[in-house]
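Q: Could you fold this chain for me?
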Amino acid sequence: MTVSSEDMTTGTKGPMSFGWRQVLAIAGPGLVVMLADTDAGSVITAAQSGAQWGYKLLLLQLILIPILYIVQELTVRLGVVTGRGHGELIRERFGRGWAWLSVSTMALACLGALVTQFSGLAGVAQLFGVPVWLMLGMTIAMIVFVVYTGSYRSVERIAILFGLFELVFLGVAVQATPDLAQVTAQLAALPLGDNGFLYLAAANIGAVIMPWMVFYQQSAVVDKGLTVVHLKVLRWDTALGAILTQLVMAAVLIAVAATIGQSRPDASLDDVPQIANALTPFLGDSTGRIVFAFGISGAALVATIVVCLTAAWGLGEVAGYRRSLSDHPREAPWFYGIFTAGLFLAGLIVCSGFNLVSLSVAVEVMNAMLLPIVLGFLFMLARRALPAPHRLSGAYAWVVGMVIVATAGFGLYAGLSGVFGG
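A: Sure. Below is the predicted structure, expressed as structure tokens.
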């Protein structure tokens, strides 16, 4: 495979050839962050969308594919060209105060994301009659072992393996065989004036464009030692991941819209096992539960690893402590300590007895309302922190700016309308 590389100092172009094994070694950060994007909270949000609004939010899943790619491609570009993490760049360009503001939104989003992952795993525990504390305890122990004993590459491979279990939802959507005429009719009559619809629209945006994803992918390419010569491969890695994650989201929405959305229109899901029950008409009771358990557990596990690493990396970029998976826990105690603390705090919140479906959807709405801060910093960095050959400029800068304003603006408006509009 031949990719075009460009020297970051001179701006000259030259061919850079990578074999398929090299491509596979370079790729990964984009696929991992996108598989983590379709996390337990995203699956729950997509399922709630299908249950309450049928196929009406299906088009939004497709519209978000290019938006997701645009956002994450900027993070990749910033990482490989500057060799700096997102929080570190904000600190260098805008000062420590702005960096702490940005990383605080990231930390809040990370905690919310961890809560949704554990909500999904708690739902799987409920499905099979396993005590929630036991399921979460085993999960925390396994993830701590994987991260404390592995390099970035080994953790990345394990995360991808977990995330691939999400693909079971694609098969379920095919089995659902949605009525295309009904899909078209519903998409032609979107209730944009309904605050409940806007609330779930905001949740879907927040479930796809997550603040922590910007921090993770930029830090991941830096920790992996990737540079500007790898940029084209990483762009393909990000594009493939963006398509895959949204196909999974669409698949969950379709499966639930074809069952609960048909039999009980406008119904609200009250617990996670109800989502599993939506699969049983196509796969049978036992098989449906097992397939759902594999899918949502894979989504939750990959996202848990990614989100905890994001918090530990991002806070370290501003606070200045050692923050690499190449370091032994004794060499980077703050990095590994924050990673572990996030797991235990989220576990305690989930074990406290909140409604897991409502909590997960609320977290995604919060993500959407944080986007003006997150995407605003991303856009400014792409305009100011990159050398001329890679700087966001010209017509494409205008396109990106409009996409960011529209996405963040609609997410904030829809979220506020849903929360305060009744």
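A (continued): The chain has a mean pLDDT of 82.
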